[in-house]
Design goal:
With 365 residues, this protein is mainly alpha-helical. The chain has helices spanning 5-37, 41-64, 69-107, 127-139, 141-146, 149-185, 187-201, 206-243, 248-260, 266-278, 284-299, 301-308, 317-361. The protein contains 13 helices and no strands. It is elongated, with a radius of gyration of 28 Å.
Length: 365
Amino acid sequence: MQLDEKTIRKLISSDLMDLFIRVGLIVLVIVLAARVLAPFASLLVWALILAVALFPLHSRLARRLNDRQTLSAIILVLAGLLLIGIPTLMFGISVAQEVRDVYAAYENNKLSIGPPDASVAQWPIIGESVYSTWKTASENFPEFLKNLPPLFNKIAKAALSLLAGTVGAVFLFIGSLIVAGIMLAYADAGSRAMKLLFTRVTDPLKGPQLQQLSAKTIRSVANGVIGVAFIQAVLVGIGFALAGIPAAGLLALVSLILGVAQLPLLLITLPAIAYIWWGGDGSTAYSVFLTIYLVVAGMVDNVLKPMLLGRGVAVPMPVILVGALGGMVSGGIVGMFIGAVVLAVGYQIFMEWIGNTVNDAKPSI
């Protein structure tokens, strides 16, 4: 039976209308779901990153507990809270109290600093000016600050902003750790769902491979960037405490931020070494020991990073590092993980495409 042109147009028009309605409803549902999840986006992304990073440890622990997934997840969350969450929260509260006390003393004109050591004047180039300014400030610090109100107000506001961001990040980490524990309790079902998603987007062969690559890349970045930065911050913080440097904990936090940002810790260890030699009261041997310790601790990432970053991933370490740095520049710490995964997956797809192209170009005999 043949259809005339009018009937064909009517059928096509009806089908197109149904298609537009279905697509519109799908888009509407996606937009509404995104708005509902938007306030929890950072929490969920961090929880997913933590869950992926902790999954190997969770699997080993669950096997020892006769495959009790929920109990394993609870133990990991409690251990994380005890070892990291609670100390970090206490540190954040301590820093908050110190900043509040300093700001209150500034408001009440009660701030004071000690006089400089005579050796400060011997510093090259800037020694005399630093000594003179420091001595003037130590004699009447509130009066000294009155000459710099705009600058000090900006510094105080920046410190309070950093404090608020730090405390917020601590609570975000604790909440993410708890949500990650819930994800780990259902890790098997979640892994199957992600495998189906990758398979749906690609094919039954490449889907599981790309899923494994994404998970291993996240773990690699967590160990090679976050883990190394944390280890460095602890080592440097111990050195600051041994040297008696004021606000050693706060400087350790700054070291952690610099380490995550892939900036050299010599930016903070060199001034600390200068303080040890010109402002400290220890013996020469002890100063030499602290100097060597801080230099080694500030450069230990050069040894640890090649060992941990890219380990177990079928992608060169520089590719993951470039992806992590580029992602961090564009999207912060979360972007560091996303950038590394995207570049690693893109590298694999590109290399496979090149391999297929070379194989297709081989002459047949």
